[in-house]
Design brief:
alpha/beta; Rossmann fold; 8 helices; 15% strand; globular
């Protein structure tokens, strides 16, 4: 895969999967525009990209605000002239609680980031790509796009919705030179997974081991393993892939659960 001369726009770029994608695109020759609410994390990620020899620009933005999303898209176009790949990735996990006890304010926050943020990204990036007549978008779904996960009602609902948005967008633009797909990460070793694992099991290491045992691979994934699939979906090797949700989950969605370790 060769992204030389192309521009990748990535939200949630200060996090584990977004950061791995930024460095993957840069290693494949792309210049990148990085977006996050974490200004310090963005600066560190831009330095890592610059170390590969590629250009990195940044926007500090809240993906729940249309003006901020419009702003980061405008920044990317002003800095680079175009957007060839968009990793619509920013997301949060929210608290773990039964539906009957789930905090309403947390529900609203998770929907705002994980669903409205993805919608707004599509809403403002698609016109740029449609005007170009080209581009590829990857939205970040989850195992929770396909399965129910107890205690994570808001997260689960949003990740189901992300897959629906992906399919709708693909149906609207597939004949106009733009592709839209989703990646469905499983148990990937990131801050988010460790936070969930600690909440559910009382200990991050034990929780990660228990959660990872649900996949035949019996280990957590690495953010780079997700980034590799994101890059593929944005590449010329995936030109006939539209509206798909690609699991990167060690086989969890395809199989019965493994026994949990003692």
């Amino acid at each position: 895969m060769d992204f030389t001369g192309r521009v990748a726009l990535i939200t949630g770029a200060a996090g584990g999967i977004g950061g791995a994608a930024a460095e993957r695109f840069a290693a494949l020759g792309a210049d990148v525009h990085l977006v996050d609410v974490d200004e310090d994390g963005l600066a560190r990620r831009a330095e890592a990209v610059a170390a590969t020899g590629r250009r990195a620009t940044t926007s500090t933005a809240d993906v729940t605000r249309s003006a901020d999303v419009r702003g980061y898209v405008a920044d990317a176009v002003r800095e680079h002239g175009r957007i060839d790949a968009f990793f619509n990735n920013a997301g949060i996990e929210g608290p773990v609680a039964p539906i009957a006890e789930y905090p309403e304010e947390a529900w609203a926050q998770v929907l705002a980031v994980n669903l409205t943020g993805v919608f707004l990204g599509l809403r403002h990036v698609l016109p740029v790509m449609l005007e170009q007549g080209s581009g590829a978008i990857v939205n970040t779904g989850s195992l929770a796009s396909e399965r129910g996960l107890p205690g994570t009602s808001a997260y689960n609902a949003t990740k189901h919705a992300v897959l629906g948005l992906t399919r709708t967008a693909a149906a609207e633009v597939a004949g106009r030179g733009v592709r839209v797909n989703a990646v469905l990460p499983g148990m990937i070793d990131t801050r988010m997974l460790r936070a969930l694992a600690e909440t559910m099991a009382g200990d991050a290491e034990r929780g990660v081991a228990l959660m990872s045992a649900n996949a035949p691979a019996a280990r957590p994934g690495d953010p780079d393993e997700v980034a590799a699939v994101v890059a593929f979906l944005c590449s010329d090797d995936a030109t006939f892939v539209h509206g798909a949700g690609w699991p990167v989950d060690g086989g969890a969605l395809a199989t019965m659960a493994n026994p949990a370790p003692e």
